[in-house]
Amino acid sequence: MTTIALDCMGGDHGPQEAVAGAAALSIERPDLHTILVGDAAQIGPLLDSMTYDPARLSVRHTPHFVGPEDVPREALAAHPDVSIAEACELVAEGRASAVVTAGSTGAAILAAARRLGRIPGVRRAALAAVTPTEQRHGPHGDPFALLLDVGATLNVSSRDLVTFAIMGSAYAAAISGNDRPRVALLSNGTESHKGPPEVVAAHAVLAELGEIEFAGNVEGLDIPRGSVDVVVTGGFIGNVVLKMLEGIGEVIADLASDAYARKFLWRLGLTMLSSGIKQIEAVMDWESYGGAPILGFCQPVIKAHGRSRSGAIANACKVAAKAARSDMVRTVERAVARLPVPEEEEVGS
Amino acid sequence: MTTIALDCMGGDHGPQEAVAGAAALSIERPDLHTILVGDAAQIGPLLDSMTYDPARLSVRHTPHFVGPEDVPREALAAHPDVSIAEACELVAEGRASAVVTAGSTGAAILAAARRLGRIPGVRRAALAAVTPTEQRHGPHGDPFALLLDVGATLNVSSRDLVTFAIMGSAYAAAISGNDRPRVALLSNGTESHKGPPEVVAAHAVLAELGEIEFAGNVEGLDIPRGSVDVVVTGGFIGNVVLKMLEGIGEVIADLASDAYARKFLWRLGLTMLSSGIKQIEAVMDWESYGGAPILGFCQPVIKAHGRSRSGAIANACKVAAKAARSDMVRTVERAVARLPVPEEEEVGS
């Protein structure tokens, strides 16, 4: 039995979708238990209206949560028992193995840093996301790669990039079933001397490390191509890249939105074009994934999209359970322990 | 009469395409004169095989040039008279008004910095490129926006971002005929406090400046949408973004490369899809543009793609002439003079 602490508050649709996802999961997956963290006055009536297995669901009540308009630091200071903090506390107490939230990423990072603590040797958290790729990855032929960091740590040191590479490798291995994911640094050229100083320095460390399958530098071209399984960069660039891909997905969807055109494409068996568009749309659809991991903490924390519906929440809980059952955190700990002692580095926020 | 100094060496196709482009231009455009800079032993026989107007073409001989495999700094040190340096020298001497090259970007920046000098108050050069957009821009409805820097200055200060915004605005106005291009900073959120410190500081200065049409921050989403005319960022991110767009263009071209599918799309009048793909391909096709300006120097320097054929070289010369005839450099000088006195800033390479 694996227990998930699910922050039910803070998503765009309120507790409704989170509770519905957990209710469905309680029936579908007898190996999981979900603790619903949030306002019992709202969660109770929602549960009353749903079918669920009461042996696999419980509630941790707290009336406070971090809403979409709140500044995370202020909200956590005002109410130390906000739902995301309580979810992390359940894991810290050993009563759950992983946290899932559709609420504020910033609040999740703050709460996890305070209650769960970082993996020894990891100084910054990284948010990872999947990006659509032309090439397939891993034993299941997934049409996407992992990109991190996409916004948790805006300015990174070389040490941060190295730990992100290690964490991305461990997470991809745990979730995709690909034992040795190929990991690369994003730069402005493939040569080892290309890029800003932190990228050049991280390249030198990773080339010697041997703990992960380091494929050197990749360029912007390689993101849509999908030359590697895991692409590592700082949070500012990662955020720009991820949102650009979302924007491109929207533009392509606009181009393809004419129902007449779509229908004809299918009828004519122009499957290459149709399936290309379909694939891009599917990959852009967060619902199918089950969330983005916030890596760097001693237990898994999965951020589901704010717009998540019940199915996406249930998927996020499944991914969280998979991560909790893997030896991901220990793999990261082992690799980080082998890193050279860090020199003093110039690091931003 | 506007005279262009054309570095004929260093492009992927050697002097053949540059000389052919200039020869065609000498007949097409009586208002332009081109000085072919490079090895006269190669240029002479090429001219002999072509039709051209000898009144509008001349040659500046130098046997040395920076090849694609050379390290620019070393090549310039070994032979101070490499062709790109001689082209810049012609402009410095007042014998030409703009430089065009299909050779190394790094060599062009170095040579221009030494021979032409930077616009007073501009500390770093920026390479600008066009990116395909869904929205149209300017009086001609161009389906692209300007992005800078795409690789000249990897690490930028807030002052650099501000000068890039001013230069991008002036160039877009000179070339597109759009008097008040909308200019934005690329960040990880639209709010003025979002982004790394240099972006936040640049935002504050631009919001007060009044010299350009500052539209605030845009996100990665806005690059394919094309919400603004000019997007400003540092060279590392700009390079990643530009190459990502190239990669996406290639992936889409792959999806659409089946001739059967293409033919049917056209026959069925599925123009939205077909024209969308065609538009992306057209925008990805550097030949149609005529090169990327290297901004920051006292005279225009236009970098044509290394793969440029004669048509692209001729276009680059036309763009260079347009820039040379505009008051772009004076506009930049005037705006930069109004900037607050820069504080000491922490700047990378």
Keywords:
homodimer; 349 residues; alpha/beta; eleven-stranded mixed sheet; 45% helix
Description of the structure:
The structure is a homodimer of 349-residue chains. With 349 residues, chain A is an alpha/beta fold. Chain A contains 13 helices and eleven strands. The first copy, chain A, has helices at 15-28, 40-48, 72-78, 83-92, 105-115, 158-176, 197-209, 222-225, 235-255, 259-267, 271-284, 310-325, 328-337; strands spanning 2-7, 32-38, 57-61, 98-101, 126-137, 142-148, 182-186, 213-218, 230-232, 292-295, 301-303. An eleven-stranded mixed sheet of chain A has the order 3-2-1-4-11-10-5-6-9-7-8, with helices on both faces. Mean pLDDT of chain A is 88; it is low at 264-272. At the A-B interface, helix 8, helix 9, helix 10 and helix 11 of A face helix 8, helix 9, helix 10 and helix 11 of B.
What is the quaternary state of this protein?
Answer: homodimer
Q: Order of SSEs of chain A, N→C?
A: EHEHEHHEHEEHEHEHEHHHEEHH
Largest sheet, strands/sense/barrel of chain A: 11 strands, mixed
Strand order of the largest sheet of chain A: 3-2-1-4-11-10-5-6-9-7-8
Q: List low-confidence stretches of chain A.
A: 264-272
Measured on Cα atoms, how large is the radius of gyration of chain A?
20 Å
Beta-strand content bin of chain A:
15-25%
Could you give a short description of this structure?
With 349 residues, chain A is of the alpha/beta class. Helices cover 45% and strands 18% of the residues of chain A.
